[in-house]
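Two folds, back to back.
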Amino acid sequence: MSKATSSSQSSDAASSDTAAAKSRRKTASRVNKSTGTTSSRAPAASRKAAAKKATTKTTKTKAAAPKTTAQKTATKTASSSKPKRATEKKSVKSSANVPVPKSKTDAQTAKDDDDKPKIAPAPMRPALRVAKRAEARRDKNQKFKVNTQIIYPAHGVGNIVDLEKQTIGDFEVELFVIDFEHEKMKLRVPVAKAAASGMRNLSTTEQIDDALELLEGRARVKRTMWSRRAQEYEAKINSGDLVSVAEVVRDLFRADDQPEQSYSERQLFEQARERFGREVAAVRKKSLEKAIDEIHIHLDRKEKVEAK
């Protein structure tokens, strides 16, 4: 009986050992499946290393997983919103530091305008200045008739010999036919534009006397380059204004004790003297030579006045 009981106890112990071993195997197989290891009876250290590798793999797969569109948009908005806030803060700070300009009153603006340096206007060209002066002296309401003498700016004394009608395009135009005997030339000027072109009637005897008295005055020579003065003299001669022509004669005249004229000065002086003399001859009803002699009489008076 004692032997039977001992054998039964030993068989029960062996069966319990086999059951415990089976349970251990099952748990080891479960751990191996979760960690990915192959050996079911690995030691504890190898199990711990395998568990660490599994955790690192899972973190890598999570990091390498592609982002969805919602996640991308979320990151973009977050990144764009951050610098904007910074710039908004900076702009608020800068605007707070900059002082607000005060509005200027009318008196202050006027004072500022007065303090600014003023630029002088450009000088007017001699020809334009002379033309404006001659136009201001000219009578714009004067009328012209056939067989009368007139003064044309660029040619001097002329005689209106005829009144013609010509068709230019679809229009019929009336023209004055002017004969310049000293230049052997005829000129046709539209009747409607005769006064605008500078054409005028002969001066009166009182105007001739005033122009001759002007020759007795002192010459007014500007201290500028000769080329500029020559342009002004030529513009005066061709202006058709009697006073302007007399001024050229007065300014370019040289007495015997004065330095001689240059060639260009002599030419301009003779041109102005002839233009002036022809009008004097036409008004006084005398020849050109006698008119020039009368001009020189007044120029000699000027010489005597300067000598005193």
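---
second:
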Amino acid sequence: MFDLDAYSARIDLPARPTRDAAGLARIQHAHRLAIPFENLDVRLGRRIAIDSAAVAAKLVTARRGGYCFEQNRLLLDALAAFGFTARPLLARVWLSAAEVPPLTHTLSLVMIDGQQWIADAGFGGSYAPVMPLAEGAEGEAPDGARFRLTQDDERAGEGGWLLLRDGDAATTDGRGAGAGWQPQYSFTLVEVHDSDLAMGNHWSMTAPSSRFTNVTVASIILPRGFATLTDRNYRRRAAETIAEAEITDPRVYRMRLSMMFGVDLSAAEVEALGLFDGATRP
């Protein structure tokens, strides 16, 4: 049984949202403000479980973050508990892609009053707002970045969709941040089964070419900005203020991870990430 009260408290959502587009957007925004995107367990050599119980135990009870397969499992369970009709989709992330990427991202398709919407609480590259699934539909993130959906692009695939972004590079994790409309990810509406999600999750946490087995990442949205920690590189954009730094002291890294992203690791766990001289990864 999904603990809706615990989830609502975790994302600081004091009142039950309306079952409409505004309510959906409110849930996703609150989720992203409260729960960081991160792959720390992958880098610590731990298996990522994406069943409902394991995800709730980690992201809600233990107050950790996670990556897309965890974040959007939690969102789907919450949406069902709030009375929405939703199902998962799989996507290809085109950020910095030199060739066709694998299906290693998941998002949610939500039906509201006969209209399909996409919601995504697990896109770590930036904040993708809730959007209606329609050609040319546009949405704006709290940081001012614009997003657009199109089927008129070969990267969308047959019958598929491509999400584009046009916004400040400072409110991204640094990938796919050129001028103008930049591809974020593509997806189709093909039915996705738990086994499909399991395969995408397995590849993401084990493949030698997976971003998550090579780079330690954390990100979280701010009311009017975005903060990222990519290996030792920290960047924070809040309104018009930008702060950037390379962290060279594991104690500072641990403090920053706790204060900005709400993730508390032990000193031994930070050492095990292998980001600092003399440290070794598991």
